[in-house]
Protein 1
Amino acid sequence: MNAKEIIARRVALEISDGMLVNLGIGLPSMVANYLPDDVDVFFQAENGVIGLGARPPEGMEDPDLTDAGGGFVTAVPGAASIDSAMSFGLIRGGHLDMTVLGGLQVDARGYLANWMVPGKMVPGMGGAMDLVAGANRVIVAMVHSAKGAPKIVPECTLPLTAARRIDLIVTEMAVIEPTDAGLVLREVGPGVTVEQVRSATAADLIVESDVSEMPVP
Amino acid sequence: MNAKEIIARRVALEISDGMLVNLGIGLPSMVANYLPDDVDVFFQAENGVIGLGARPPEGMEDPDLTDAGGGFVTAVPGAASIDSAMSFGLIRGGHLDMTVLGGLQVDARGYLANWMVPGKMVPGMGGAMDLVAGANRVIVAMVHSAKGAPKIVPECTLPLTAARRIDLIVTEMAVIEPTDAGLVLREVGPGVTVEQVRSATAADLIVESDVSEMPVP
Amino acid sequence: MTCTGDAPMKTATKVAEAAEMIPEGAVLLIGGFMAVGTPERMIDALVARGVGGFTIVANDTAMPGHGIGKLVSAGLVAKAVVSHIGLNPETQQKMISGEMEVDLVPQGTLVERIRAGGVGLGGVLTATGVGTPVEEGKQTVEIDGKTYLLEKPIRGDYALIAARQADYKGNLEYALTAHNFNPIMALAGATVIAEPHVIVPVGAIPPDAVKTPGVLVDHLLERGQ
Amino acid sequence: MTCTGDAPMKTATKVAEAAEMIPEGAVLLIGGFMAVGTPERMIDALVARGVGGFTIVANDTAMPGHGIGKLVSAGLVAKAVVSHIGLNPETQQKMISGEMEVDLVPQGTLVERIRAGGVGLGGVLTATGVGTPVEEGKQTVEIDGKTYLLEKPIRGDYALIAARQADYKGNLEYALTAHNFNPIMALAGATVIAEPHVIVPVGAIPPDAVKTPGVLVDHLLERGQ
């Protein structure tokens, strides 16, 4: 199982019945593949649909029905079309139960940076700032390090996405929860030791006695 | 022809092709009866429709289709249902070409008071404050005096509807335009003299040489 | 991406059970304009139950015997935040006697304040009411040389809304002038109770016809008799 | 009340004529999200005409060869006010070289700023962007202990919008994820040019299906080939 699949499978466990969930493009969107059949949720694509469905059969694509990454999708029965004002009204207004986003850095305060690398990559924040500021629960799904450099750092050096403590970090090596006291290591990845997590993490980790191995169903 | 009919017929001349118009309840709503057949306009009922139509045939009333006064109406072909946010978005956003409202007082500045008499009558402002603040053109349609007391006064003693100069006052005695210089008498009612208008008006009137008799088709 | 799940069905709630949920003194956003597009069965159930002390937020208090007018007559309203009470003399009497507090808000400001509460904005900046008694006690903000009132967001403990049609997922459609405040209030109630005329199977309301997504609706009242 | 009149029919405008209306340097609100729900024929006509210096306000600049990406490639965009340029490397290059100015705005803030411009509000009070570079140079307002950015309204000289269907009065319907910014931009352009896929007779779009009332639309583009 590769790193991204471990992460997606673990994040899927955070989703429960009846939630409205927004998955960012890339790795976060893989989470939908690993939802148990008996979990009933609605996915929001912030570009305009509640009730995002799977890729359509070949030849059945509708150019007016895509996800936020521009890929062809379907809409599940009971889906609703929404314009951008309603879409972000739901996000900012506390109606979105969970968002799963990628990250460039998360720091000891639980602050996320994920929208630009000054002088190098300026994609823009798109909907990320509203999602982090507004969603009831924010999960950052990312590989633990970027080319050997830790992405979990004492303080973000990249521009912040929001001055809000995100709720959970899920990597292939660890599940980490930002708290008032700092970053608490909750779980380690399959076959990973606490020491390995520590050495791949630039921020201090609080390790309590009950660190378990990540369930990856 | 009674006073209200004179007023309604004169106001109707202010409406031209292609306008979006909101008529207040009571006297202003009579204006729709006197539009020439060749004038194509849309009426807005601020409670939720653009394209307000006549009263429906007996037995065809829809409880979900009324005007802002609660009376049964129809919708013309090409009508659009709007919610209250869209309705007042159109009003505040400069999309409403004209509103015709009743008045309790208008003063020398052209300011209107039409929503309460402290200690006596407190109906509430409903949509009137938004209409006066937002409509591109505001016409006040009212009888010239209330039980002998002038309604056009030096300064409103009743609470203002908005600190905006309205565009035209139409009564059965006169058409008066508020300007930077003050209230200008533009027309007198059928058979009414300038002197009669002056004595029924508490505010100063500017009378230029070209005061004509009101056309009442 | 594969999506195996979808959102849960609502179960239809009996109107008396819905009334039981609402505690004394709750803040209720109630849809309707002069009792058009008002959740009439829900109001009847609240009157039958007799618990009150409510703050109601609505366009108006309708007329005695209709819509919110019934709540006023039954003495269940402690405070009304509304734009108009002109057609309900009982509201005017209770306001003058001090039995009911009435906060008059311009209609466009009222709907935007509820929207702001529902979509997570900090307030509304409007020129409506500047230079009138509505301005009293409010912060004004100068923006590019023009003065605006800063009007606060409004949220409710419950939004009681009426709809033309719902599907089992709670997606709602409204009809003609019965839209009014309903779609906006659906955003701003901590709990949203919808009273549809008709309930249809999932799929019977196409996505483009949905005005209120079912994810906003907590309870659907069962179909009336 | 009798209403004898009704609003005038629109005449269908040829796309090249619509492009001719738009002066050099105009502020254009352009609907679409990654070129979905974008007025593609209008954009092609602007590229064919070659007059530019535009400020465009849109969700994104799409990709080279698609939607707004074609305006960028043709060098017609002086400034872009957008939430995302990540999938258009040309926009990034032109921004870095200084050929194009890019103002990045969070997506939810962008749509509310356009809405505020369209519905006559003085600004938007949002918590989005607080504590980030988006806050720089902006007034903050404290409301009930929470900090909000005061974001200014946006209006355009022209709104160029795409729709699924129009009737002769200009009433518009949108489809699925092709709604996006279109219904909001229809409120905020001094002149609104709508590009529908289909034009149907008056009455073929029922009042409850109308998302943009025809009174907002100034020009309807004639049906494409």
Note: Chain D touches chain B at residues 1-8, 115, 117-121, 167-169, 171, 187-188, 202-203, 207-208, 210, 213-216 (CB under 8 Å).
Protein 2
Amino acid sequence: MDMDRNSLVEAYRRMRTIREFEDRLHKDFAGGEIPGFVHLYAGEEAVAVGLCSHLGDGDFITSTHRGHGHCIAKGVDTAGMMAEIYGKAPGSCNGKGGSMHIADVDKGMLGANGIVGGGPPLACGAALSAKKRGTDNVVICFFGDGASNQGTTLEGMNLAGVWKLPVVFVCENNGYAETTSYKYSVSGTDIAARARGFGMPSVAVDGLDFFAVAEAAGEAIARARRGEGPTFIEAQTYRYYGHFEGDSIAYRDREEEESFRSRDCLSRFRQTVTSQGLVEAADLDAIDGAVAAEIEQAVTDALSAPDPSLDSLTTDVYVDFPASQLWMFQDEPVRV
Amino acid sequence: MDMDRNSLVEAYRRMRTIREFEDRLHKDFAGGEIPGFVHLYAGEEAVAVGLCSHLGDGDFITSTHRGHGHCIAKGVDTAGMMAEIYGKAPGSCNGKGGSMHIADVDKGMLGANGIVGGGPPLACGAALSAKKRGTDNVVICFFGDGASNQGTTLEGMNLAGVWKLPVVFVCENNGYAETTSYKYSVSGTDIAARARGFGMPSVAVDGLDFFAVAEAAGEAIARARRGEGPTFIEAQTYRYYGHFEGDSIAYRDREEEESFRSRDCLSRFRQTVTSQGLVEAADLDAIDGAVAAEIEQAVTDALSAPDPSLDSLTTDVYVDFPASQLWMFQDEPVRV
Amino acid sequence: MTTIELSQRTITYREAINEALDLEMARDDRVILFGEDVSGAPHSEEERHFDAWGGVLGVTKGLAGKHGRERVIDTPITESAFIGAGVGAAATGMRPVVELMFIGFMGVCLDQIINQAAKMRYMFGGKAKIPLVIRTMTGAGFRAAAQHSDSPYSTFCHFPGLKVVAPSNPADAKGLLAAAIRDDDPVIFCENKVLYDTPGPVPEGEYVVPLGEASVPREGDDVTIVAISRMVGVAHQAADSLASSGVNTEIVDLRSLAPLDTDTVLASIRKTGRLVVVDEDNPRCSVATDIAALAATQAMEYLAAPVKLVTAPHTPVPFSPVLEDAYVPTPERVVEAVRATLA
Amino acid sequence: MTTIELSQRTITYREAINEALDLEMARDDRVILFGEDVSGAPHSEEERHFDAWGGVLGVTKGLAGKHGRERVIDTPITESAFIGAGVGAAATGMRPVVELMFIGFMGVCLDQIINQAAKMRYMFGGKAKIPLVIRTMTGAGFRAAAQHSDSPYSTFCHFPGLKVVAPSNPADAKGLLAAAIRDDDPVIFCENKVLYDTPGPVPEGEYVVPLGEASVPREGDDVTIVAISRMVGVAHQAADSLASSGVNTEIVDLRSLAPLDTDTVLASIRKTGRLVVVDEDNPRCSVATDIAALAATQAMEYLAAPVKLVTAPHTPVPFSPVLEDAYVPTPERVVEAVRATLA
Ligand SMILES: Cc1ncc(C[n+]2csc(CCOP(=O)(O)OP(=O)(O)O)c2C)c(N)n1
Ligand SMILES: Cc1ncc(C[n+]2csc(CCOP(=O)(O)OP(=O)(O)O)c2C)c(N)n1
Ligand SMILES: [Mg+2]
Ligand SMILES: [Mg+2]
């Protein structure tokens, strides 16, 4: 790896932020504070950060229902994210999107996505756009092992190949889609091999190893920037929590979880960089503290933030549309 | 090949029938007699017949917009087909389906299909049904090179693999999807390799060679009947006419067509069986004559057949539905 | 002191659906069930993993235990393939019940529903039938945001060849699902996820509510409220509050959205002369405008006041709880609409 | 003797669409076009193969020659991927015009339209815009059978976030397409394939017809006919025949289906007191029932007779020419409906 100290510190900070963010949501969800479906990324941090550490704001990512990690890795503000998850006015999407739709187009984050397989076509579009606009920007398309079976994902891979688009397809194989192991859902069980059938370079990496991910990512992204087309990376990883919060996790075993936790991506990163003298442990500790404070503040602010105004129910549907037709055929409700 | 004389004669008869049927439509379409979109199968006969010669009525096939050949190969009555293409009452579908929707469920023909990629999911269902009903029936799923890029096709392959369904996926690679060569549309250009990514045995065969097709088909079908799951066959073939009738065919060259015509599947079949003394040329000639007469009769009958009654506009939408709601919100038109 | 009759024991909407599936599977071995995680942990043969989920909200829980994994089958995330497989299986002798987890996912598999299931019989000249049920979840109020909360059953109603039902209570859920499974046409069965925990009296044993028949759970002669699914409850709340000021509301619970029970709707309009339609689907090209069109084309001369619609706005479903609560029609809005027809 | 003014030269509906695309591409290099065979023979560099098709019915012919294959891009048959690519490109600075060959193919790509393009802006709190045009073909009469002939634009109207237009003549086709391309919201542009060869006067050069404005191509005060796309021509035929018996028909050509020009529709109803809606789409949950609902909720007191709908039946489109001709609304049926409102 040819990462300088600053980049390593920044990578750690982002991974740590994701972990802290997700652990905190896990706790607060159990406390009944958080509405809706919440899918946590804890355990998979090395994947999002390993990829996004190569990107600038002009590069795009597409994401999934399990999007918090992608957002943080791409630089989306955690305060806005937290407020969004609480459905509050200062949220990244003004409270209208929630956990499953956090987005920040200016940061190159094209939205978490509630539709499994929703992202790959969008990724092709952003990549086409990057190409047509004459940039060397790239697009990272994150999706799960379950999503690797969805037609839209497979179509996206083919189209990216045909159009030689600067996309990196990143399958986050965390073992399960809801309760279903990829060993059942993926015919042939080899996801990376599947991508080869679309004529693109494809590699499987240990998704718990930040450096392995970052290296594969670096090559794939460089290839894309050179205009040589898409690459596929299968990152083998694990989600520490259930499919969503509230899941009793009756479909897998505690021992399996432990075996992954024992290879935790954050601990390994810390171990590697400290043992090689690249970053001091104390510096990482300081990051841990700062991140904890940042997330604590984000929660405090989210809790005290105002709800969206009721008027905002009917804004932002269109750029331009007759207001009267947003309550078509009826009287606009009187708010009291 | 271990085909007996009767089977060879029957295979020839079906291939010849398809050719005659399609050549005749080509002629009559040019004469302005035939309504709608008509996609001809001429040139590809060895594929449909090579596959279907292994099937009984309990086995199913799914088809495409280019379905006449599949129908004839599966034993659908040509008189009914011709009447259907003319939109007449005695048509296979009472004139309601036309060329793109000819079907005969009792014969195991689940319909030509106007949607590219429409067939593979249906094939999975028929195969699941065969399995659940405790039969050893199989399903052949025909589709084109263009369709091999459609998400539904790719999903179907994966599902058939996961459920170990008795399906044989047959990609009729006739070089083009409308004007577009598979060399452009199929990323990686190797369709058979793509199927391997779904963990199924996959083979490419010369689709102009009846015996090569029939042999690959025999193995795949036997495998499916044994409960060992799906197989993929890419049959490399060519369509002699345009994408549909009326196509000016400006996207490919006459020489290319000639090179395929010089390897015509019917001529080669005749050559092989006569030179090996398996069937006498005179017997094949007799078939040619009989088939020509059959198709001539089918056209004559179709032309003189009655149109569907206007009442049939609103029948067969449902098994059971209030008649009044078929003209919902309005007066049923008075027919004079 | 009240005694609960056995035939009127109380179970939830979720349990009622589970019971209908259980009974129909027992009754007819052509009935099979498939969808994502409908049982759970399909990769594992271990007993401790068996039936790990029973669907994302537990509706099919226990059925794999009773009827076996051969009949309760988990799928990959591949809606086009497995819903299409439902069509293909239905066309060839089975009676599949497939699950499209949320109705908002229709977009990843719609072709198999509108171009294959719905049109096959017609295109084949009547020589096919497709006894397929697609169970799916509708309904806002779950804080599940725009892609998991809408109720576009109107899209299915639009396409000839499909039947669409949307039960508002546990008994209807059980009876309509049984009818849907026994029906020879494709039926979209819309379960409102917000109702799953709602209890209600449900007959034991086989119980069938015919498709295409609305119910009139409350009779009245001042005004007709036509409502769908969870909005029937909202209509009842509105009716209760109106009753206190002497307004007698008649409520028509459509139950079947296609076919529509036009007779019951028209009879009620003719009786009351006033019509309010309550629907949580978006307003454009909706079942609500259909009911208004029914009145305008076939009962105009009976109407004493303009028809009133109370629906969701023409917006996606917002996430924020305060906004989502403002999105779904409320009893207050219904009361206001009724009062406007009486003004 | 009539002289044809240059500004009123006559071109076909097909040519008008081609011209709008050409002009908008020249005007704004963010406009790119893609779809299946929109140019043709993408595999070949040979000049003799260049621009082999220009779309299945030749609408985009010549554009690749003028604007290059870099901007007129052929796709594999993979509607979800390339329409989704349109959404992604629109969200990131381009203004794509993508072609969904036939509207009946919506089912293979609907999610990218209804859950991504339509909802993104709202879900993102207004922080995205999707200037995407999806061109697609509607219309029966082509002997193309059930999957290639229906007109379910109502499904697109139903989903908030989409705009939908359906021009009835060459001038509107040109002007509305220009407006759609310049619009910052996703627009579904519905071309009636039966109209492609229809000629009409079309202004040269830049010409924009604003979205959301109906036209009134014929004024009258006895009855209002609201019609869409090809049915506007049918309405004119009906009006001609009614005129001979002294009935003055006003025709409202909706042009935009979402947003609707409710003012123009309501003004006409208030003027004539009689409403007939003609739509070749299926009747349930349709634009036709929306117009009836508009009358029932906002103009009931002006109606002198029940509203009349003339639509396709609730059936798929049949293949047989005699049946297809009976499927599409005819001038005779419209005349009958008008007469019924006058009775
Ligand atoms: C089209 C669609 N089908 C089903 C779902 C329900 N669903 C949400 S997440 C999920 C599992 C996704 O698994 P995977 O792709 O492996 O991602 P992971 O959750 O493991 O990150 C499913 C089935 C959905 N949201 N969208
Ligand atoms: C979903 C869908 N997209 C596009 C079309 C239009 N279309 C009809 S046939 C065809 C080409 C199909 O090519 P291929 O699969 O190779 O079959 P072939 O025509 O060569 O037999 C296309 C694009 C369609 N019918 N359905
Ligand atoms: Mg997963
Ligand atoms: Mg082909």
Note: Residues A 144-146, 174, 176-177 surround magnesium ion (ligand 3) (CB under 6 Å).
